[in-house]
């Protein structure tokens, strides 16, 4: 019989039961809707591109692993696009649909702990998207991923050491997609005392104190290179907070980002500010309402940035 991990209610939202408390964001239907909206946003922003890392032909067939798969929507799209590939998604919550492509599997895992039952050197692509705020130690993010002779460390260093043991030498890639939520404004239209600015400062401080930083790490590309990866790339996409740009594509990006962020503001904010800063729900709701108004105000020409890193595991330590 499968072990049950009942979800629990907190501040009117439903949170995961498996390894309770390690993840600060809910897993209820409203949050699942937000995840699917953001998947659409990513598709619009990337013009339909599901992954930037290449699939290199090799003798073993393609295998894909999606970490923090959420509703599984990216993994499902990958399994539909590559029906011969084996695709697997890990998440602490089993919120994925029952009807899925035949070569797709979902597993409940805390992927910062030991990965049992997975073959070594076997994955062509390990995909991470929007994990900021759920991983323990970004300074160690890529430091140990291909250093086989060092002791395993806690946090993300441990996670990425496991990557090195599961991604294929020579052919295996990691693709990591994150949003730097810091609001940028080139024309001074966003007031310095805007609720959007205050909200992000509060959220960054709280998640940092919780050792699950939401902040974008500017050294990610350098850390990948230092860790020993080759063919490291970084792509940056401008993300308007709403439909203020005149460019049609940017306007579409802004529309979907505004929808997804507005839908997810409460989910992003409740856990960090109630658990870490000891706010009550009413105070969070008041802040969220103010931030939503800022997000939807088109006279504020505000944007943030999406970052997409790809990196390949070399065949051996001598490959540059």
Tell me about this structure.
The chain has one domain: Rossmann fold (3-Layer(aba) Sandwich), CATH 3.40.50. 33% of the residues lie in helices and 19% in strands. It contains seven helices and nine strands, in the order E-E-H-E-H-E-E-E-H-E-H-H-E-H-H-E. Strands 5-4-3-6-7-9-8 form a seven-stranded mixed sheet, with helices on both faces. Strands 1-2 form a two-stranded antiparallel sheet. The longest helix is centred in the C-terminal third of the chain and has 29 residues, at 248-276. It is globular. It starts with 7 loop residues before the first strand and ends in an 8-residue tail after the last strand. Residues 138-158 have low confidence and may be disordered.
Question: Can you give the mean pLDDT?
Answer: 88
Structural class: alpha/beta
H and E order: EEHEHEEEHEHHEHHE
Question: Tell me, what is the CATH class?
Answer: Alpha Beta
Number of domains: 1
Going across the major beta sheet, what is the strand order? 5-4-3-6-7-9-8
Any key phrases for this structure?
single chain
Write a short abstract of this structure.
This protein is of the alpha/beta class and 320 residues long.
Give the secondary structure arrangement, pairings included:
Blueprint: E1 8-10, E2 13-15, H1 29-45, E3 63-67, H2 73-81, E4 86-91, E5 104-108, E6 125-129, H3 156-166, E7 173-184, H4 195-209, H5 220-227, E8 230-240, H6 248-276, H7 281-296, E9 303-312
Parallel strand pairs: 3-4, 3-6, 4-5, 6-7
Antiparallel strand pairs: 1-2, 7-9, 8-9
């Amino acid at each position: 019989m499968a072990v049950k991990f009942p979800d629990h209610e907190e501040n009117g939202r439903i949170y995961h039961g498996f390894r309770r408390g390690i993840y600060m964001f809910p897993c209820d239907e409203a949050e699942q809707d937000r995840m699917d909206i953001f998947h659409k946003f990513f598709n619009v922003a990337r013009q339909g591109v599901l992954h930037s890392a290449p699939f290199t032909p090799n003798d073993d067939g393609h295998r894909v692993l999606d970490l923090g798969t959420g509703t599984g929507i990216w993994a499902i799209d990958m399994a539909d696009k590559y029906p011969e590939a084996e695709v697997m998604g890990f998440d602490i919550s089993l919120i994925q649909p029952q009807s899925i492509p035949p070569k797709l599997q979902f597993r409940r895992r805390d992927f910062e702990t030991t990965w049992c039952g997975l073959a070594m050197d076997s994955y062509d692509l390990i995909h991470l998207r929007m994990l900021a705020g759920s991983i323990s130690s970004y300074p160690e993010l890529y430091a140990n991923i291909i250093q086989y002779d060092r002791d395993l460390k806690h946090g993300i260093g441990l996670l990425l050491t496991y990557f090195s043991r599961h991604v294929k030498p020579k052919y295996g890639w990691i693709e990591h997609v994150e949003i730097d939520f810091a609001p940028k404004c080139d024309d001074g239209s966003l007031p310095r005392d805007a609720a959007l600015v205050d909200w992000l400062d509060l959220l960054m401080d709280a998640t940092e104190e919780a050792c699950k930083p939401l902040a974008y790490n500017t050294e990610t590309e350098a850390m990948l290179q230092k860790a020993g990866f080759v063919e490291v790339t970084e792509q940056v996409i401008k993300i308007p907070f709403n439909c203020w740009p005149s460019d049609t594509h940017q306007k579409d990006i802004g529309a979907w980002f505004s929808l997804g962020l507005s839908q997810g503001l409460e989910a992003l904010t409740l856990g960090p500010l109630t658990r870490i800063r000891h706010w009550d729900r009413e105070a969070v709701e008041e802040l969220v309402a103010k931030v939503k108004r800022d997000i939807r105000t088109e006279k504020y020409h505000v944007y943030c940035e999406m970052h997409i890193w790809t990196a390949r595991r070399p065949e051996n330590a001598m490959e540059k």
